[in-house]
Fold:
Amino acid sequence: SNLGHGFENVGDNDHIVTYNNDGSLVRDLVGFSYKYAENEFSIAASRLTVPYDCIYTLDQNNKTPIPTANGSVDVLFAGSTNGDKDNLALIVADFENNGVYYRVKAENVSLANFSLIVKAIINNG
Structure:
């Protein structure tokens, strides 16, 4: 829950755990909301799969390696613009780190701030 200096936890979102009748785990989802540099963003996490929250298709599946102390984490970024050259209307990042799958989502955020958010999650996750 501690992402570092400048990050404020503004609340918990969904906490969903679903089991089969035999006790095996079907779905696990934990969500949090944060604020960083006046930008609100959400984090959804699961140990089973990337916690998708909408359906969309991408023209390509190019991942960006984000350096860590022990190598790198491949992150799939997707976003849309709204005509504002400084901020993206919507941006998401999907990645796996230390056995946990993440989806990070923000609206009206600069790419620089969103990159700092993703790096903070990777380095503190």
